[in-house]
Amino acid sequence: MVSQTPEQIGTNQSFGGQQLRYKHQSAVLNCEMTFSIYLPPQAQKGPVPVLYWLSGLTCNDENFVHKAGAQQHAAEQGIAIVCPDTSPRGDGVADDPDGAYDMGLGAGFYVNATQQPWAEHYQMYSYILDELPQLINKEFPVDGERISISGHSMGGHGALTIALKNPQRFKSVSAFAPICSPLNCPWGDKVLSNYLGDDRHTWKYYDAVELIKQAQQHLPVLVDQGTADNFLTEQLKTELLVSAGQVADFPIQIRMQPDYDHSYFFIATFIAEHIKFHARALL
Amino acid sequence: MVSQTPEQIGTNQSFGGQQLRYKHQSAVLNCEMTFSIYLPPQAQKGPVPVLYWLSGLTCNDENFVHKAGAQQHAAEQGIAIVCPDTSPRGDGVADDPDGAYDMGLGAGFYVNATQQPWAEHYQMYSYILDELPQLINKEFPVDGERISISGHSMGGHGALTIALKNPQRFKSVSAFAPICSPLNCPWGDKVLSNYLGDDRHTWKYYDAVELIKQAQQHLPVLVDQGTADNFLTEQLKTELLVSAGQVADFPIQIRMQPDYDHSYFFIATFIAEHIKFHARALL
């Protein structure tokens, strides 16, 4: 796979470091993609570890950059943060036929689609795990051996499943209000039946609850979930993750946060603790 | 003036406090207005001091709420933050005839307009100084005797001019990249000639540089300005504020911040220091 050099399309000084934005041609996704990267001041002196952040439904690479307030804490710890987009993009990319927000554009679900019309572009699992890190490691002052991953909602599902399937590649994983089990919620039913087909056995490779049960290696896991989150009962199913961890004797730290909802105000409140959690594994 | 009880239209838990949003009928502006208020956790135990934040051109009450990361620091210090909108709003409210971003909707410039078609609604100076604080003091657990004010760009101009004209009402004032002298920049020429008319003597009451020169009372003033700000040379004219402070022997703290631009990344980087600056005057 040959990666094009990414083209810088944005730069802002932030907490002594730089908040940057790039576009590049993705071979895996077969389209042009945009990502954001925060380089802390420490990156001027040598390679820094990297945290990948996967956003939720309807987001692109910028929501976390503008709303989470993470740069302050990344600058304190000396950690870069990479924010990919949430799906392939562009005129030729398939979208939900009804224009719904929960499938298609902005809703890649971090899987490799096998079904039509999705398979041509919707390969977000490979993009996040392989293509994008290869590009980041080549083009930026980061240490490709020290990588962690986090995300929100659909991106929490992405972070957990990608890290649990590849524990040798990540030092730690965390999630805010993750979709814990696509096998057991309406979002999963709709999207995975479209992207992966009706054989639900194939869905297990993208289900954090199933992967926890099978995990051979126990990397550090932190999950925060607000109790006032409107999606908690029907879509997120945090209780399945709790019980899976207990059954598998996998020590996951899952914190129920009273009164917090599904918004970026929730993420902003606890992002400092997540970055410190990852710093303990990365530094 | 009788203020309607404001109607809550948004609530999010944030850093142990609450980020709230309200709409209300403004008698002064003669239209419905929206504002946001952050109540820190300390407000559950009794009245807290208040910082008013005035946003810049094109903004409404939400930009600062989502992008500045101020709640963390307001919660640490126990200070409420009120974010008004930047102009009157609604179908009957005059706007720039060409739809330009720098006059009309989103560009009230925190003055009381005397000219048509603006005078009917564009009374932002009185709204910010009188009507909104009266409503806030009545409806929320805040201490109306401990008020400070800050803002960005057009809002920095608003904060400086309102506080300098009313030093007995504010404990401190700060600004990010303020428009220092509407008398001496294209934005000022265009907007104040429309809102106030061609007699430039009337503009002096809304010009921070002129007000600094005439100030009898020296309240604490902090200004941050990025050196990579695209508006610095033509519109902001920080150097006029520096020299006015020197001529008037008014000790203004003006800090030029290398490489920072006009964006919210700049504000987010230094908002903690501004809130601590105000806390020293308020607590």
From TrEMBL, chains A, B:
Organism, scientific name: gamma proteobacterium HTCC2207
Gene Ontology biological process terms from the UniProt entry: formaldehyde catabolic process
Enzyme Commission number(s) from the entry: 3.1.2.12
Record: active site: S153, D229, H262
Enzyme category, top tier: hydrolase
The protein, known as: S-formylglutathione hydrolase
UniProt cross-references to NCBIfam families, sorted A to Z: fghA_ester_D
Molecular-function GO terms, alphabetical: carboxylic ester hydrolase activity; S-formylglutathione hydrolase activity
Family, per entry: Belongs to the esterase D family.
GO cellular component, one term: cytosol
Record has Secreted as a keyword: no
Statement: the UniProt record of this protein carries the keyword Hydrolase: yes
Record InterPro entries: AB_hydrolase_fold, Esterase-like, S-formylglutathione_hydrol
Reaction(s) catalysed (UniProt annotation): S-formylglutathione + H2O = formate + glutathione + H(+)
Described purpose of this protein according to its UniProt entry: Serine hydrolase involved in the detoxification of formaldehyde.
